[in-house]
Amino acid sequence: MRMRWRKPNNRHCHSVASSAFTRGCGPSPTQVQLNILQKLAKIMFPMSSELVFKVALHGDTLLTSPRWNKGTAFTKEERKDFGLMGRLPSRVNTIEEQCERAYDQLRSHESPIQKNSFLQSLKEQNWVLYYSLLSRHLKELTSIIYTPTEAEAIAKYSHLFRRSEGLFLAFPDRGSMEEDFLEQIRGKDIELIVCTDAEAILGIGDQGVGGIGISSAKSAIYTLLAGINPTKALSVTLDVGTDNETLLNDHLYVGWPSGRVRGVEYDKFIDKFVQLIRKHQPHCLLHFEDFGVTNAQRLLELYRNEHSVFNDDIQGTGAVTLAALMAAVGVTKSKLADQRYVIFGAGSAGLGIAKQVRDAIILTDGVSREEANKKFYLVDRFGLIKQSLGPDKIRPALLEFVRPDEEWSNVPTNDAGEVELLEIVKKVRPTVLIGCSTKGGAFTERVVRTMKEGCERPIILPLSNPSNLVEVDPKDANDWTEGMALLATGSPFPPAKMPNGKDYVIAECNNALIYPGLGFGSMLSQSRQMTDGMIIAGAQRLAALSPALKDPDSGLLPDFQDAPAANLEVAIAVAEQAFDEGIQGVSWSREEVRTKAEDKQWKPVYGRYEYDEQGAK
Ligand SMILES: NC(=O)C1=CN([C@@H]2O[C@H](COP(=O)(O)OP(=O)(O)OC[C@H]3O[C@@H](n4cnc5c(N)ncnc54)[C@H](O)[C@@H]3O)[C@@H](O)[C@H]2O)C=CC1
Ligand SMILES: CC(=O)C(=O)O
Ligand SMILES: [Mg+2]
């Protein structure tokens, strides 16, 4: 891996949208903000007249194609050319009018889950309108199509089911997997596949076939935040059964109603899928999402050297958390290597974070791997991960982080002989406490206050999703530490009040702030692998955009409103790193990365259609 560690800086502030990114960058703030907003507006909503598409669809087939349908925005001329006269009401609308109408309709739905269903149905009808609407109300609507509301939609998938989306590969139909896959991608140039086996969806566990909801939500976020062309993305659910009794006992369950396939048969099934991607789509990025803890790391290691494979829960979460921590140590004027880390929940996310931060400590501060490992205390269902838990309770991937028993011989345990979080906090006096356990409320008042006694500015990141599983409500953590905690959460939370009455922005430390950029950077450079160097380069770039580096009372990470601009920067850093490592698969040069990235982004604009038999279908 050829890469140099670079301290966060603001070199890239000219090209991002947030005012927080731009303070101190040459022209007056107002002028800079104006330029940036104009640039962002152009990126998000370029003039549709600039684009011309050759389209081969006609009449109803055009109106029912979500990619090409424009609804009432078809011009009179297009209506004549495409057999739409009489199929649409007379008035031609602009996209602005369509968004206004759709937003009014959305607001007539009261509950978040109803809004989620409405947006899903809009997506099935008209992609340009769907993504335009989401872009215009990014923060508000991301929480509807992603965490927290998507968790509820997934749990209710079989009951809310109306129309299928994506590719369903069920274990009993494995004989026709290749045919089914080819049928789905026929005529398409797929660059991204997001797949899940749905064993650990967000924090709500095994959701069987409903897992398609996370693949398509993650895929939509790729489009929304990184401009991935939705026609080039495929969402997949690998339906290997479910051990969720509620689903198995539900006669309306639409997945394969069987217990989960495990062991050799499971591995063969996954391998068949990966190999057919390697055969038919050798350049596409394969994104794994929400696999169970026993498979996630194992599958990543198995395939990452032979294909561009990415596990979001491990690598995406590791990267976004590293960026948040880099910003936090920037505020406390300390180093990553100075911290003592307690990670509560040693699953995919917990391990991914530990490894990512450990690797960064080695790179930044020249600490040996062994010394760096010692800075981490991992905690899981059986309390502290220490030697005497034995191989039944310690996955091989955790071995580097196991604490020696002697270190804990004088520490009180519970009846089961486990060392619980409070005792760990008392002994370790952590400066960083991260939650990815799915155990809502685990960071109790005592835990947080004890942590505060041991350090002036505790860094607390309760990352579990959805919102009701957060380890501590950030408002409480803020109150219990008299506003001194540096906080970020996995799902959106409102600002907390500082003792001086000021709002403290709770940054969203969600992998969506970085994975679209990591994936886009890899796709853009057509790199053969997603390397650790590329991921760290992306995390560094995101950290450099932290508003907290300018104002310590601002959020640790860019506001979600700025997520498209931040992800573009991440993508550029990742692609540049691919060049530095010599693993790019494109013939253009490193200097062209930014222009190529901006050009490649798909924008939700209609453009003008011309009928052409050889055109898009
Ligand atoms: N903010 C973000 O970007 C991300 C957040 N997450 C969230 O983190 C949580 C975990 O996700 P994954 O690591 O993918 O799941 P996972 O299933 O791989 O890991 C969960 C771990 O927590 C442990 N655990 C369960 N109950 C516990 C308890 N009472 N005390 C301590 N540990 C306990 C489990 O044994 C398991 O090792 C989920 O809520 C998920 O939504 C995950 C990925 C990204
Ligand atoms: C955000 C995410 O990937 C998760 O909660 O699993
Ligand atoms: Mg996930």
UniProtKB/TrEMBL annotation:
PROSITE patterns: MALIC_ENZYMES (PS00331). Residues 123-304 form the Malic enzyme N-terminal domain. Divalent metal cations. Prefers magnesium or manganese. (S)-malate binds at residues 465, 510. A divalent metal cation binds at residues 289-290, 313. One of its GO terms (biological process) is malate metabolic process. The keyword Transmembrane does not apply. Its cofactor is Mn(2+); Mg(2+). Signal peptide: none annotated. GO terms for molecular function: malate dehydrogenase (decarboxylating) (NAD+) activity; metal ion binding; NAD binding. The active site is at residues 146, 218. Keywords: Metal-binding, NAD, Oxidoreductase. It comes from the Eukaryota. One of its GO terms (cellular component) is mitochondrion. Residues 314-579 form the Malic enzyme NAD-binding domain. PANTHER family: MALIC ENZYME-RELATED, NAD-DEPENDENT MALIC ENZYME, MITOCHONDRIAL. Belongs to the malic enzymes family. This is Malic enzyme. It comes from Suillus placidus.
